[in-house]
Amino acid sequence: MRDDGTLRTRLHPVGSGSGALTAPRAAVRASVVALGLALAMVPTACAQPPASGDGGQAGRAVLAAGDLSPEAALAPRAGSTLGENDDEAARFGRALGKYLAGRAAQHAKDIPAAADLYADALAADPDNVLLMRRAYYYLAADGRFDEAVAVARRTVEVLPDEDFAPLLLATDAMRRNAPNESVAILDGLPPRGLNGFLQPLLAAWAHLGAGDLEAALKALDPARGLMSARRLVDLHAALLAERAGDAEQALERLDAYLEDGPPENARPLELVAMMLVRLGRLDQARDMVSEFVAAGPVPLAISSLADGLETDGAEAMPMLVNDATDGFAEALYHTGLMLGQGQGSETGIVLMRLALAVKPDFPRATLAIAETLRRMERFEAANEVLGDLDASGQPGLDYVVQLYKAENLEHLERIDEALARYDALAEGHPDQVEPLVDKGDLLRRAERYDEAATAYGAAIDRMADGDPTLWAVLYRRGIAYERAKQWDPAEADFLRALELEPDQPEVLNYLGYSWLDQGLHIERAVAMIKDAVRQRPNDGYIVDSLGWGFYLLGRYEEAVRELERAVELRPQDWTINDHLGDAYWRVDRRLEARFQWERALSLEPNEDKIEAIETKIDEGLPPAETVVREVAH
């Protein structure tokens, strides 16, 4: 069957430089996966307590939520009077209620509510370290840095072995221009979990802030043992050496970084290219950026960088890392990006917030927070973050912010507002196709197919014939035409898309199934769908198309085999269950056929299909030759 609900190709990325919206790059995916394994024990406010302790009050108080019930976790500690009189009992009840509400907010990914509730719970039970850990973590995630630092300071006083709170204290020290204090905090951290990766980077910049390049480079050594960290360590080593004025060592470290190839995403590319220019390697920087641009869609920041490298003043590249504080923020930012794209979304946000605490004028970190919130489906919160971002005087950044706001409004089902923003962006940026494509996607999902086709057509008019994403917009427009019952232009778009991308499985499947649905070119359609299945063997929609093709060819046993597999892959799809029922009927498995039709009926099929399914349940199917003749006609 056709799957037009999700199109897997994103066009013309405009993100913060994280690479999150760029064309997939295998090295990036491998690095993120490896980092995820390395950070499997990332400490958060909900982390497990240290294995050892002094056995006293603090050790008894630090209990993760998974260890005890909420009531036990918040129960009175030994020697306390909490709960011994009515006032204390009421206070315990308040703490427990706020804690439970905070957990609910946490699971709903409502960071501001979780921060408020855990802070309120701590106010009611101020000696509870579990509440301290949750409170400082979520206060930091909500951008309430000073409050978070105050709670983190209390936490380490009660729990000296705490892993995460010292990162806030070290960040606060750098913010106050006290690098020696930051060094003392970071050098005392054990290199476990997240700190095994992040502590060396932060300690290196703190040592540089204290004026010691040798100690800074040595601080990086513990992270070199992590496969996923080595490249980032080399990049920061080059940045450290350059900031210290050691051009020879900066080039040596930069060459070590480039031994494994050019940067895989936007921010490292900017940093490396600008360093190369300042270190006298302009041509190398130009070649590197040109190769990145040629590989596919790129963020606007890289387009601007490519243009800047071609000007006469290219040697005057701006400094993205001006001092040790900026470098400290970059380390937090880079780590936050990798965590935010995986399973550590909230920790990624916390690290971005710490980067902004050190470097308030860091729009990429703000944008990355919004991107992470979008992935968490917290679209209103993402727009609130974007509303705090000052994009004045930065046309590229303003474009990104407005595009994200429009997309967030779409997810919030504020359709008219989203369409108005897309129109304004398309008018104000005649060189960009993303607003028009996003507008077309929105209209298509709203089943306004004629308008969607028009929007896609306007985007296609802006695209060059050699654009690597042209096929995807043609595919989208073809879907809109097909849904609007304009088959001739739809077929033309699908065929042109296949000329540009001959093996594209989504297009092969959609066109192949459409031909099957109309009884056209069945042999060719089945061959195309076989090719799509070969590339996507676990895609239930495409496997269903192959099974249905076999059915129309009268190859019923093969149809049953493929359709059974399709139902396993997509058990909740009514069309696939209906198809399997038809195939069962043809191989005389009548009881199973009726079961599948009843199953299809229970899955809320389209209104215009209900009567036909009910008729099949009551009467079965007509003779096979009649079906073939009608389909072929």
Short summary of the structure?
This protein has helices spanning 26-38, 57-61, 70-73, 86-107, 111-124, 129-141, 145-158, 165-175, 179-187, 195-209, 213-219, 230-243, 247-258, 266-278, 282-294, 300-309, 324-340, 345-358, 363-375, 379-387, 395-411, 415-428, 434-445, 449-461, 470-483, 487-500, 505-518, 522-535, 540-552, 556-569, 574-586, 590-602, 607-619, 624-632. With 633 residues, it is mostly helical.
Q: What would the keywords be for this entry?
A:
633 residues, mainly alpha, Serine Threonine Protein Phosphatase 5, Tetratricopeptide repeat, 68% helix, globular, disordered C terminus, repeat
Structural summary, described in words:
This protein has 633 residues and is mainly α. Among the domains are: 55-160, Alpha Horseshoe (Serine Threonine Protein Phosphatase 5, Tetratricopeptide repeat); 385-499, Tetratricopeptide repeat domain (Serine Threonine Protein Phosphatase 5, Tetratricopeptide repeat), CATH 1.25.40.10; 503-633, Serine Threonine Protein Phosphatase 5, Tetratricopeptide repeat (Alpha Horseshoe). Helices cover 68% and strands 0% of the residues. It is built from 34 helices and no strands. The protein has helices at 26-38, 57-61, 70-73, 86-107, 111-124, 129-141, 145-158, 165-175, 179-187, 195-209, 213-219, 230-243, 247-258, 266-278, 282-294, 300-309, 324-340, 345-358, 363-375, 379-387, 395-411, 415-428, 434-445, 449-461, 470-483, 487-500, 505-518, 522-535, 540-552, 556-569, 574-586, 590-602, 607-619, 624-632. The longest helix is centred in the N-terminal third of the chain and has 22 residues, at 86-107. It starts with 25 loop residues before the first helix and ends with a helix. TPR repeats lie at residues 471-504, 540-573. It comes from Rhodospira trueperi.
